[in-house]
Design a protein that fits this description.
Elements lengths: L2 H7 L23 E5 L8 E6 L8 E7 L11 H8 L4 E5 L29 H11 L2 H4 L4 E11 L1 H10 L7 E5 L19 E5 L7 H10 L6 E5 L14 H16 L2 H8 L4 H4 L3 E3 L6
Parallel strand pairs: 3-4, 3-5, 5-6, 6-7, 7-8
Antiparallel strand pairs: 1-2, 2-4, 8-9
Length: 290
């Protein structure tokens, strides 16, 4: 099977771009969400995902996100990121959206990573999103952010950006690494500098990032809390299915646990009879340290 065919078809548990379908339902959580161009909130190089009506009487956690291929389309992972936002998380993605919320994108599967050739994002955009949030997030226009509950994450090349932006960044409390690892041998020593808990998620043996993630899992400090989860869906995961598919389900559980302290979500990872395992996820909790 060619690399392109693998990206399209995924693996035995589905995934790939063949199942891509734009979803404007607002997510399955209790707070229907959508995205806005960052320019609506004084953040011109980003896309903001937030509940249409923010949770009353409290602050939301923040997740800053870097796209696969370091792509500059902040709406490229909209199904997946809207799903996370619908559970009361404010998400800021690198890059402007290449289409308005609710507008159908022609050849959606072919434009998932977004941006034009050479139009790539950079890790510093994640730091800019943190600065924006710390300075008041446009006066709370999209809800109030709790800077004590901040995550940084990204897929493929975007995961490398998340690593880079987080390794010496005290404001990031949790890291999410999706379908990637530290590929450059000259940068692997930075793994020993990471202080935050990490969630690793990848697409099983057909995901070309598998060997890097597994090596990272071994090379991070022995005392660092980390989990590693795989589903046989290939490198493109299920991000582009409605609600982000099974990657959406496990990611909601992870971020609810890590950023909202939800104990029922935590239990899903430790109970091998939970819905996550029934979905086909293989979850290695051996590196988790309380």
């Amino acid at each position: 099977m060619s690399a392109l065919s693998s990206l399209r078809s995924g693996g035995k548990d589905g995934g790939g771009t063949n199942k891509a379908k734009q979803d404007f339902s607002g997510g399955s959580g209790p707070y229907k969400a959508q995205y806005w161009p960052g320019s609506a909130g004084s953040l011109p190089e980003h896309t903001i995902y937030a509940p249409k009506t923010p949770p009353a009487g409290g602050k939301m956690p923040l997740l800053v996100w870097a796209n696969g291929a370091c792509g500059s389309n902040g709406a490229g992972f909209s199904n997946f990121l809207t799903e996370i936002a619908s559970w009361g998380v404010l998400v800021v993605a690198n890059g402007n959206p290449k289409g308005a919320w609710g507008a159908t994108t022609p050849n959606y599967a072919g434009s998932l990573m977004g941006g034009t050739e050479g139009d790539k994002t950079r890790a510093s955009l994640l730091t800019e999103a943190l600065d924006w949030a710390e300075k008041g997030a446009a006066g709370g226009k999209f809800g109030t952010i709790d800077m004590a509950r901040v995550g940084a994450a990204g897929q493929s090349c975007g995961g490398v950006e998340a690593y880079s932006a987080s390794v010496f960044e005290k404001r990031v409390k949790v890291i999410g690494i999706y379908n990637t690892g530290v590929i450059d041998p000259g940068r692997r020593h930075y793994l020993k500098e990471i202080k935050q808990p990490i969630g690793y998620f990848y697409g099983g043996e057909k995901d070309f990032s598998a060997k890097y993630i597994m090596q990272d899992f071994k090379d991070i400090p022995a005392t660092l809390p980390a989990i590693m989860s795989s589903l046989q869906v290939g490198h493109m995961g299920t991000y582009f299915e409605p609600h982000g598919g099974k990657f959406g389900v496990i990611s909601v559980a992870f971020w609810k646990w890590q950023l909202q302290g939800d104990q029922a979500s935590k239990a899903l990872f430790f109970n091998k009879s939970s819905t996550l395992y029934k979905d086909g996820w293989s979850i290695d909790m051996s590196h988790w340290r309380e």
